[in-house]
Specification:
Blueprint (H helix, E strand, L loop, with lengths): L15 H17 L3 E2 L5 E3 H7 L5 H6 L2 E3 L5 E4 L4 H10 L9 E10 L11 E10 L4 H18 L4 E7 L6 H12 L8 H9 L10 H8 L10 H16 L5 E2 L11 E9 L9 E5 L3 H4 L7 E7 H10 L12 E6 L1 H16 L4 E3 L6 H11 L3 E6 H6 L1 E6 L5 E5 L3 H6 L1
Parallel strand pairs: 1-5, 7-8, 12-13, 12-14
Antiparallel strand pairs: 2-4, 3-4, 5-6, 6-11, 7-9, 9-10, 10-11, 14-15, 15-16
Helix pairs in contact: 1-5, 1-11, 5-9
């Protein structure tokens, strides 16, 4: 018996109302801030991610789905959305538009990792990017937009975590200090961190191993080694967040997992779930577009996993409105009544009234039982006698009351 591949899942009809709720709220938030939708391919040239994410990251080393197609091209299923957005920005000359260009997306992303709650090998990502401006006020807008999204979804008790990891001018000096500090603890590090020390020392601060976390807690802070421009940028950002009355905590261990980040990094975390349960995050990536062949272009973005949002909606018992559904069920008895039911269903749907028409040759009792199970408000019953008299029986399924009314008045009555 075939099953969905490990780390993937089917989104069944009874779960769809959560998905539509999140997608609608996300799209509405983007509209408020002037972001426009973009869609991109589910796979890209593998080099795009090696170059953008960083060859020394866990995603590239362990998690990407990469294969060679029939043309001999090395292809990767997208593991995140930002690189594809930047590729599209360069390819389509979006630098010629008024800056910043503001884009949002919904996409399936793929990472080969150990499946767990809120983390899948195929998951669905919502994200947005603001490209072409390095004003810290834009950072504040992007962060505030994420906060407003989660507020609109009704998710309570969130924490905003903030840090600055500097730029290509000041970061090398900080990394040298960080390496010197960790050189004293080599024997106490986990195997992954021993590798990171030589290849990607910034990720040492992000290790989830308890003993490594204790070492990272007192490690040198990137904010203490910022150049003047980065320090001023971070100071202004914090001031703008204060103007927006957004509470935040600066955490020197926050670095994010991708190499392209510069300066601002941030995460939103549910307080009840613990620091490892980030619900969304992002940051600035001022060098990425240039590295992909474009002109020097500052940018900042945010992304969140829809599955993880839905987990939080459920765990915190947020009431989500159901999807609209047909409110009328048409039951019929007899061959002439079946023909009339088919014509009536078509007419009502054309008038914008949702209809579920009974099929098969079930008894009236079975048809009404089906209508009750479907949760419709009204059942329209047609027998051969009703066909002859030009009437129908309208049954209120909430109280079982029913009455005969002229067929010509049914549409008006249902709309009332």
């Amino acid at each position: 018996m075939y099953q969905a591949p490990r780390g993937t899942s089917d989104i069944l009809p009874q779960e769809q109302y959560y998905w539509r709720y999140v997608e609608t709220k996300a799209a509405n938030t983007c509209q408020l801030y002037g972001y426009e939708r973009i869609d991109f391919p589910a796979f890209e040239d593998a080099g795009l991610f090696t170059r953008s994410i960083g060859a020394e990251t866990d995603i590239v080393d362990k998690e990407m789905y990469t294969f060679e197609d029939r043309g001999g091209n090395k292809i990767t299923l997208i593991p995140e959305g930002t690189a594809s957005i930047c590729r599209a920005y360069v390819e389509h000359g979006l630098h010629n538009l008024p800056q910043p260009v503001k884009l949002y997306y919904f996409a399936s992303v793929f990472r080969y990792e150990r499946p767990q709650a809120g983390r899948y090998r195929q998951h669905h990502q919502f994200g947005y990017e603001a490209i072409g401006d390095d004003d810290p006020a834009l950072d504040a807008e992007v962060i505030n937009m994420a906060w407003q999204l989660f507020q609109s979804l009704g998710i309570p008790r969130l924490s905003l975590i903030l840090n600055s990891i500097g730029c290509k001018i000041c970061r090398p000096g900080y990394l040298a200090v960080l390496k010197n500090y960790y050189a004293n603890y080599v024997n106490e590090l986990c195997s992954d961190c021993k590798t990171r020390l030589g290849r990607n020392p910034l990720r040492l601060l992000d290790c989830k191993n308890l003993s490594c976390q204790q070492i990272a807690d007192v490690a040198p802070k990137s904010a203490d080694y910022l150049c003047q421009e980065c320090a001023e940028h971070f100071s202004q950002l914090k001031r703008y967040l204060g103007l927006l009355e957004l509470p935040f905590v600066v955490n020197h261990r926050l670095v994010r997992g991708l190499d392209y980040y510069t300066r601002t990094v941030f995460e939103v975390q549910p307080e009840a779930e613990g620091s490892q349960s980030t619900i969304g995050g992002g940051g600035r990536y001022d060098n990425l577009i240039e590295e992909l062949g474009g002109k020097p272009t500052p940018a900042i973005g945010f992304a969140t996993g829809i599955e993880r949002i839905i987990l939080n909606l459920k765990s915190q018992q947020v009431l989500v409105p159901p999807l609209p559904k047909p409110e009328v069920f048409i039951a019929h008895l007899g061959n002439d009544a079946r023909d009339e039911a088919i014509k009536l269903s078509f007419k009502l749907r054309q008038a914008g009234i949702g209809v579920i028409e009974s099929t098969g040759s079930k008894s009236l009792k079975a048809q009404l039982r089906q209508a009750n199970t479907l949760g419709v408000n009204h059942a329209v019953i047609i027998g051969d006698q009703e066909v002859k008299s030009g009437t129908v029986i309208l049954r209120d399924m909430t109280n079982a009351r029913q009455e005969a009314i002229p067929l010509a008045r049914l549409e008006e009555r249902l709309k009332q």
